[in-house]
Design goal:
It is a single chain. 47% of the residues are buried. The chain has two domains: 5-191 and 311-408, Zn peptidases (Aminopeptidase); 195-307, Alpha-Beta Plaits. It is of the alpha/beta class. It is elongated. 34% of the residues lie in helices and 24% in strands. The protein has helices spanning 5-8, 14-20, 22-34, 43-53, 113-128, 151-157, 219-237, 276-296, 316-330, 348-354, 388-408, and strands spanning 59-62, 69-74, 77-87, 135-143, 170-177, 185-187, 190-193, 195-204, 208-209, 244-253, 260-261, 264-273, 300-307, 312-314, 335-337, 357-363. The strands form four sheets. The chain has an eight-stranded mixed sheet, sandwiched between helices.
Length: 409
């Protein structure tokens, strides 16, 4: 077991101090929840984050193309750099929780990013309280635009990894989960979450009269063949040991009536993978197959690739370190290894492509909520028990401290 001088102390103050600030963190989280904003431009949320960080010995940098906040804490002792990340944006979901602090604006923190911000602010306050002893530097990355807008990639482009003299040696993020038991952590080394891309496909024929299909090139049956071929592609072209999934979520034609043959059929695919090999298979070979199939039926296929996030891949050594530290802090019974990765996507993946690190899920399921009432993430009814903020703040602070201590050992 790896330990540093701070962790070896029986009076490790982080959990106790986090408990003492819980009420304040809950109020902060609920303020974020009520002003939920979507995308890259989050002016109210950014102002609230900055207000919560006021008075702390932090160097603040604001984003140019997005409402990001980067805060740097320089410890009183020399050492390496660790990055802690929390995302800031909400989803375009009309909230139906009935909470007193529910968002009234048609946007909702249905993925727990309000907790991520409040927990990261708590970690910043805890680490600032031991600044003189801190052996190194901590970068607090408050990131907009995680929900499909690529905010992590933009923050990297704007220099979040170069904000100090030294590239971060490690990066960590905690993501709350509404269905995992309260206070329990789950993660795994290697692929944690999927990479995702999309194809917009147009199958183009000529259109015509339904009474004379032989005088037209009807794209509808061709589209039906394409749908079946796409499913066969996923089932037969992938190594069974290397998971991937393709879904067609949108399908429409430009026909205005039942007796009018469409000129064009449009469909959209969603493709998820864990390995670069499967990702390349989906983005390179699948479009070639679709074009060839359309051409065989005298149609034309126009295909647009819409790239999204790469797979979220935890560094093996940093994941073992994270699980060891969390087990020491909370008990081994509250830290477990995920048996397989999740098919959802996360743009912390961009950071993990540049910095060895790990993301961990933290259960925030309200203990008194009946199983039938537990809603999944992104639901308009999802509920989180924000008493978990004390656990989150202490865990992030402990990870940063112990990793910096390891770097000076």
């Amino acid at each position: 077991m790896i330990s540093g001088p701070f962790l070896a102390r029986p009076d490790n103050p982080f959990p106790q101090r986090a408990d003492h600030m819980l009420d304040e963190l809950q109020q902060l989280r609920r303020r974020f929840h009520a002003i939920a904003e979507v995308g890259l431009d989050l002016p109210q949320t950014q102002r609230s984050v900055l207000q919560a960080l006021e008075g702390l010995p932090l160097e603040i940098t604001l984003g140019k193309r997005l409402s990001s906040v980067t805060a740097v804490l320089r410890g009183g002792r020399p050492g390496t750099t660790v990055l802690l990340r929390g995302d800031m944006d909400a989803l375009p979901v009309a909230e139906a929780t009935g909470l007193e602090y529910a968002s009234p604006h048609g946007a909702m923190h249905a993925c727990g990013h309000d907790l991520h911000m409040a927990g990261l602010i708590g970690a910043a306050r805890l680490l600032c309280s031991v600044r003189d002893e801190l052996p190194g530097t901590v970068v607090f990355m408050f990131q907009p635009g995680e929900e499909g807008h690529g905010g992590g990639e933009l923050m990297i482009a704007e220099g979040v990894l170069e904000v100090t003299e030294e590239h971060p040696a490690a990066a960590y993020a905690v993501h709350v989960d509404s269905t995992t038991p309260f206070g329990h952590f789950i993660t795994r080394p290697g692929p944690l979450m999927a990479g995702v891309n999309a194809l917009d496909i147009r199958i183009i024929g000529t259109g015509g009269h339904a009474a004379a299909p032989h005088l037209a090139v009807d794209p509808v049956p061709v589209a039906a063949e394409v749908i079946l071929a796409v499913q066969s592609f996923a089932a037969r072209r992938l190594n069974p040991a290397d998971a991937g999934v393709i879904s067609i979520g949108k399908l429409s034609s430009d026909s205005a009536a039942g007796n009018v043959l469409a000129r064009e059929v449009a469909m959209s695919t969603n493709m998820r993978h864990f390995s670069d090999e499967v990702g390349t298979l989906f983005t390179d070979e699948l479009p070639r197959m679709i074009r060839a199939l359309a051409e065989a039926h005298r149609c034309r296929a126009e295909i647009t690739l819409i790239p999204s996030y790469p797979a979220t891949v935890n560094d093996a050594a940093e994941t073992e370190f994270l699980m060891d530290r969390l087990s020491a802090l909370h008990g081994t019974q509250r830290v477990r290894r995920m048996p397989e990765p999740a098919m959802a996507a996360e743009d912390f993946s961009y950071v993990l492509q540049k910095v060895p690190g790990a993301m961990v899920f933290l259960g925030a399921k309200p203990p008194d909520l009946a199983e039938d009432d537990v809603a999944p993430m992104h639901s308009e009814r999802v509920l989180f028990d924000d008493r978990v903020l004390a656990v989150q703040a202490a865990s992030l602070a402990n990870l940063a401290w112990s990793r910096l201590t390891l770097g000076t050992a």
